[in-house]
Design a protein that fits this description.
By secondary structure, this protein is α/β, with parallel strands linked by helices. Helices cover 28% and strands 19% of the residues. The chain has one domain: Alpha-Beta Barrel (TIM Barrel).
């Protein structure tokens, strides 16, 4: 398993918890606005962090941290992620999984084994523009739709989230996303931010005013939808 980063403290990534975040390399999507391109398109072997080093850190932080966020890339691609999460759970930590929803079978398997306490799934765009948005034209949404349905069944606490990019998201997309996620517990719109490590440079964010308009659209279907991480642009 290729661990490429460890953020030792976060108050934002795991709602209501003090956590750390572990970054796993590798992804099957190529979203142009991905802010972790170094985990997707140009992985540096020299940045690899041994699994035992992460676990040693977690042992030292027992009683200080509540949980561990497993993110990427796409964590469910990592063949050793089940054993890794199991060892984290043995240390007494809650585990939050970030996923693009492309591997519904593995998602269900890990949840049913009691290894996952919270899931954050990215909704990249409206179904008709999914392939364009993830950089894979003609992509089948079968697994993504399956993951949405599975999470909405309420087996595990979850949230959906969409990173909004001016070049990819329009008013009609939020109507379609809202219809798709109708009745979801948690849905967040978050503004694109150029991290300096994106796959396609030159993309832009919307203003807060435009994002609030998008929020009003999706709230017709998901009343609890909210904005996340907005500054005062």
């Amino acid at each position: 398993m290729n661990i490429q980063g460890l953020q030792k403290l976060t108050l934002l990534d795991y709602p209501g918890k003090v956590a750390c975040t572990v970054f796993l390399a590798g992804c099957n999507f190529r979203c142009p606005f991905c802010h972790n391109a170094s985990l997707v398109t140009h992985i540096d072997p020299e940045n690899h962090i041994p699994e035992e080093e992460v676990l040693a850190f977690l042992r030292k932080r027992a009683g200080v941290l509540d949980g561990v966020c497993i993110t990427g890339g796409e964590p469910l691609l990592s063949p050793g992620v089940e054993d890794f999460i199991g060892r984290i759970r043995e240390l007494g930590y809650l585990v939050k999984l970030d996923t693009n929803g492309s591997n519904v079978n593995r998602l269900e398997y890990l949840v049913k084994k009691g290894l996952i306490d919270y899931v954050a799934m990215d909704i990249k765009n409206s179904p008709k523009k999914y392939g364009l948005t993830i950089g894979i034209e003609g992509y089948s949404l079968e697994n993504v739709r399956g993951s949405v349905e599975y999470l909405m069944a309420g087996t595990v606490p979850y949230e959906f989230r969409t990173t909004v990019v001016r070049e990819f998201h329009k008013r009609e997309d939020f109507e379609e996303i809202g219809e798709w996620l109708k009745g979801a517990r948690q849905y967040y719109l978050q503004s694109f931010q150029d991290s300096g490590d994106v796959i396609q440079p030159g993309l832009r964010a919307y203003t807060k005013e435009i994002l609030e308009q998008a929020l009003e659209i999706v709230r017709k279907y998901v009343p609890g939808a909210r904005l996340r991480g907005m500054d005062q642009r």
